[in-house]
Design goal:
Number of strands of chain A: 0
Order of helices and strands of chain A: HHHHHHHHHHH
Family (chain A): Belongs to the sigma-70 factor family. ECF subfamily.
Bound molecules: zinc ion
Largest sheet of chain B: none
Distance between the termini of chain A: 43 Å
Shape of chain B: elongated
Number of domains of chain A: 2
Helix content of chain B: over 70%
Number of helices of chain B: 4
Number of domains of chain B: 1
Number of helices of chain A: 11
CATH class of the largest domain in chain A: Mainly Alpha
Structural class of chain B: mainly alpha
Protein name (chain A): RNA polymerase sigma-70 factor (ECF subfamily)
Oligomer: heterodimer
Number of strands of chain B: 0
Largest sheet of chain A: none
Pfam family, one (chain A): Sigma70_r4_2
Shape of chain A: elongated
Helix content of chain A: 55-70%
Keywords (chain A): Sigma factor, Transcription, Transcription regulation
Organism (chain A): Spirosoma utsteinense
Strand content of chain A: under 5%
Largest interface: A-B, 50 and 38 residues
Structural class of chain A: mainly alpha
């Protein structure tokens, strides 16, 4: 599961298998000159900084943590730039580093009620059939009046693994294949995790919509 | 028009693939049929679409503060 720290930030790249975080000097030297490094950094990495910040903020749900996480990620990206192949998918490469940094460095000190969340995840993962083989009874009309803040609250209440797939797919528009690389999981797992995440989200939205008094099937 | 769908969970999974742009031609064709004949599928399709749109369109996108951009750029310059 993704609780296992993943430290190999360059795994998706055609490298000789060296780990970007452990042994930068072993990275396959792409021999970029300093000038090239700065150009790649500015032209290929910096354009994604708003998406990266948004991702960091949605993961940490805290502005200061998002700041630190984005800064760490970009400094790391520059340090290990020789393991990035120019012209390849920079956004996915950066997202992967950010997500790994989050797991390794931030998740522990994250302000969210982690214990409860992990139990939630555990329960959901362990009871696959029961949890996945159902649909949430909710009508499109009952969520159509929700505003962004309410959606964000519902999303934030999901365990981080589920929140992550929804952010990557629905907010950032990554393909399943890109998500598989960013998260180091098979495409089939992307698909099923997304399905579960959306069921959970719909349950939260349903609770939210009814607590806010939006009209449901049942009237009081 | 069918009032009950016997493969609701499978239909839901297929609907999600389609909305995510990950479906095959075959799945697309199948959905087309369901959307003309199956009430639960129609409802699920509208709900999934609505939820996805809430996420894509209604949630605020946080932009990176200018200050942070400046900090990163200056720290990079001091690297080599
Ligand atoms: Zn159906």
């Amino acid at each position: 599961m993704s609780d296992t720290p993943t430290r190999d930030d360059d795994q998706t790249l055609p490298t000789d298998g060296s780990s970007v975080e452990q042994s930068p000097s072993d990275a396959p030297a792409r021999g970029y000159t300093d000038e090239q490094k700065y150009r790649i950094f500015n032209k290929e990495f910096m354009p994604h900084i708003d998406s990266m910040y948004n991702f960091a903020f949605r993961l940490t749900t805290d502005e200061d943590d998002a700041n630190d996480l984005v800064q760490d990620t970009y400094l790391k990206a520059f340090r290990f730039i020789s393991s990035f192949e120019q012209g390849t998918n920079a956004k996915a490469w950066l997202f992967r580093i950010l997500k790994n940094s989050f797991i390794n460095d931030y998740r522990k000190k994250s302000k969210e009620p982690a214990k409860v969340d992990y139990q939630d995840v555990e329960t959901t993962y362990n009871s696959e059939d029961a949890e996945t083989e159902h649909t949430v009874d909710l009508r499109a009309e009952s969520v159509s009046d929700l505003i962004g803040d309410e959606v964000a609250t519902a999303l934030n209440s999901l365990p981080v693994d589920f929140r992550t797939v929804i952010i990557l797919c629905d907010i950032e528009g990554f393909t399943y294949e890109e998500m598989a690389k960013i998260l180091d999981i098979p495409i089939g797992t992307v698909r099923s995790r997304l399905h579960r995440a959306r069921n959970l989200l719909k349950e939260k939205l349903r609770d939210y919509a009814s607590s806010m008094g939006y009209k449901e099937e049942t009237d009081e | 028009m069918k009032e009950n769908c016997s493969h609701q969970v499978d239909c839901l999974k297929m609907i999600q693939l389609i909305l995510d742009g990950e479906a095959t031609e075959q799945q697309l064709a199948k959905l087309q049929i369901n959307l003309e004949s199956c009430q639960p599928c129609i409802r699920m399709y509208h709900l999934e679409k609505e939820v996805k749109e809430l996420l894509t369109k209604r949630m605020e996108k946080r932009c990176c503060p200018d200050e942070l951009v400046a900090t990163i750029k200056s720290r990079i310059l001091s690297f080599s």
